[in-house]
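Protocol step 4 of 5: obtain the predicted structure for the target chain.
Materials: sequence only (see below). No template structures provided, no constraints applied. The aim of this step is simply to have a reference model before the mutagenesis design in step 5. Sequence pasted as it appears in the construct record:
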Amino acid sequence: MNAFNLPPAFGFEGSRVLIAGGAGPLIFGPAANAAWFDLIRPVVLPAGTLQPGSALELDLLVDFQAPNAAGRAIKLDINGVLVGQAFPAAAMGCASIKFPFWVGNDARSLAAYGQSFNDVLSPAAGQGAPFSSHAAAPAIIAVDLSGETTIRVQAQPKGGDVCRVAGICLTQRRMPGGAGQMLPLNAISCWGDSLTSGLGATTPIGGWPSRLRQTLAGRGVSNFGVGGQTAAQVIDRLVADRVMGRHGIIIGWLGRNDVGVAGDLTAAVMTQHLRAVANLAGGATYLPGTIIPSATDTAGSANHNAILAANAAIRAQYPNAIDFFAALATEPDGTVAAANRSDTVHLNDAGYEIARTTVQTRLTAFDL
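Step 4 output (structure tokens):
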């Protein structure tokens, strides 16, 4: 099959071939070439083709008819973003190139070993790093895959080289039933602000999600806390993550950064909890957390009264709510004890251990 006559996606549940083709036309590289040429006609995949959480693998067999020039290159471009390059050695008459990628849960990023791929053991100058460079940390490449996706595979032959694609195949692999099936049904994701990320703990595992992970070995507990975020910002991230934000057991502890901000705290927080619930896939569970006061949010203050009202609404709407307020705001003035805080807002190791116990007790009570 000629690479310019590409079939529609085909395959079976869990694996699909999105692009497949045989030999393409010859591409001639001028003596002083800096231009890129399409190895195949750009392919446009319909919206929804690339599934969140799936693995993509582009396999290329490129034939160089006159292998006598250093510096030649192959690149993969997706929606105008460079996502991978290879630099076949001058001595290679035929190069086998593999580009593996993983689609982000929000379908707006790709994860890969790095941006340059090369199987050459001793590359000449300008031909990239050797294969051992794959030991580098994965690269996260921002590219929107949620709509139509255009795939371009291009070559830059040098010094009179002639090349063509001898074979091409783009395969997508995913778990049967969708991306959410990659998660255990009882996996837990923790969404919130700095009280979830663990600010104030003395060790990297001092926050309550990390402590929960240690005590619930094998369950899978993920920490999606980001300091400084409002309730809306937390749920924006949750909704964007089409795997962790929709499946399993989801805990949302949010609203602390909305306290004292102009507007109705109860409305601001409840709106976001409702968004989280509306985002759930079948079989998933959402547990909201009540808001805790700062050291200055004493009983009778406007902030304390707003927190009480918001927490009352959370408890009334969600019988499975995790009551952090009741567990931590135990001082006579309605605040968190100094022994359990690292500053006026954040908890310390002792406070996060109370939070962990509170969460675990709630999970047990609801057989989650």
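Step 4 remarks: Residues 183-365 form a domain with the Rossmann fold fold (CATH 3.40.50.1110). The first strand starts at residue 10 and ends at 12.
Proceed to step 5.
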